[in-house]
Amino acid sequence: MKARPIIAITTGEPAGIGPEIAIRGAVSCLVHLQPVLIGDCHQLADLADQLGYGALICRLPSSNLSREKITALSGNLIVVDVPLAVPPVAGQLDARNAPAVLKFMDIAIDGALDGTFDAVTTAPVQKSIINDASIPFTGHTEYFADRTHTERVVMMLAGELQQNSDLPHTMLRVALATTHLPLKAVSEAITIEGLIETASIIHKDLKKRFGLASPRILMTGLNPHAGENGYLGMEEIQVLSPAIHALKQQGVDITGPYPADTLFQPHFLENADCVLAMYHDQGLPVLKYATFGHGVNITLGMPIIRTSVDHGTALDIATKGLGIANAGSMSVALQIAAEMATHSSHMP
User: Fold this and answer.
1) DSSP state of 278
2) Where are the alpha helices (DSSP H) in 160-279?
3) d(Cα 294, Cα 50) in Å, to the nearest integer?
4) Strand-pair category, 296-300 with 306-309
5) Helices 328-345 and 18-28 meet at what angle, rounded to 10?
6) Could you read off the pLDDT tens digit of each residue along the chain, which spans 348 residues?
7) How far apart are CA 265 and CA 288, in angstroms?
8) Which of 294, 303, 305 shows the shortest CA–CA distance to 331?
């Protein structure tokens, strides 16, 4: 891999803030990585002009895409041109552009699989409008998993903590045992086998993608007070603890289950590389509060590296003009993607 990793950026829903934050994030990281924007070149060039970066735009046809071509254009905002069906209007979804949005992802995934790109960073898409176009679509993560033939993926969010944090390090990572499920379905979805697979993926990718020789994982409980010895639920005794025991037998440094209401404190986190939370709203509110909108969504378990912003398309903000949207999450997502790519290149 070259000194500067090549990161594909899918620009997401064209009526949202994705194209703008993709440009601004790419510019902020140009010194450290080579971004390759995938989207409608006409739209991106127009936005770049308005943002003052028009001179950096360099179009590259999707039919002429290669690592050598990208390297030859290094230092520019390279755009792999995927024309939209109709010109986008800020804040106004149009199902006719949905196939192009999926093509953004297809080009990025294929390029990451064949080595053209070192990683992929995704801007947000609007699931509803893709389905309105009669294209079954459950989400970014599921689409990437299907296209890379990955049976199980793990959602992990990471972010830099606020500067006045008491922790000796600045990165907080929270992975999820379950993702977008109603609370009443969470307990049944958590199994010993599932926890073993999830924690094993986390362990492997923390080593391979983040360069941690001996990653340390903390597991939350499911119930209040981690079940309080069975008085508040039996899952910790019957499911979580057996999974932890089995993982330790496999050489995974994992401890718990800990009460989630006390786990997110410096006393515990200073000795952890990742927290494995049982459900979405158990771990992510803490991370999103602590990282002030600079969190990053990372998909673990795939043969390629994929990071994403931790927010949606923000159609309402897109209508208010350029410069209002916060591009911080995109910038951090690109930086983490580059770091993961660098660590991965050092692996056998």
Assistant:
1) S
2) 183-189, 192-208, 235, 241-249, 260-263, 266-269
3) 25
4) antiparallel
5) 60
6) 446 899 999 999 999 999 999 999 999 999 999 999 999 999 999 999 999 999 999 999 988 899 999 999 999 999 999 999 999 999 999 999 999 999 999 999 999 999 999 999 999 999 999 999 999 998 899 999 999 999 999 999 998 876 545 554 568 999 999 988 999 999 999 999 999 999 999 999 999 999 999 999 999 999 999 999 999 999 999 999 999 999 999 999 999 999 999 999 888 888 899 999 999 999 999 998 888 778 899 999 999 999 999 889 999 999 999 999 999 999 999 999 999 999 886 443
7) 15
8) 294
> Are 6 and 67 spatial neighbours (Cβ–Cβ below 8 Å)?
yes
Task: Reduce the DSSP state of residue 318 to 3 states and report it.
Answer: helix
- The answer to whether the beta carbons of residues 291 and 268 sit under 8 Å apart is no
Give the separation between CA 230 and CA 239, rounded to whole angstroms: 12
Q: Which amino acid is at 117?
A: F
R_g of the chain, CA atoms, integer Å = 20
Residue with tokens 């801007």: 123
Question: What b/e string do you get for 5-32 counting C-beta neighbours within 10 Å, with b at 16 or more?
Answer: bbbbbbbbbbbbbbbbbbbbbbbbbbeb
What domains lie within the chain, and their CATH numbers? 6-150+302-345 (3.40.718.10), 154-290 (3.40.718.10)
User: Model-level pTM?
Assistant: 0.92
Taking the alpha carbons of 44, 23, 159, 290 in that order, is the dihedral positive or negative? Answer: negative
CB 82 within 8 A of CB 40: yes
Sequence length of the chain is: 348
CA–CA dist 167, 227 (Å, integer): 28
297 with 120: CB under 8 angstroms?
no
Cβ(47)–Cβ(88) below 8 Å = no
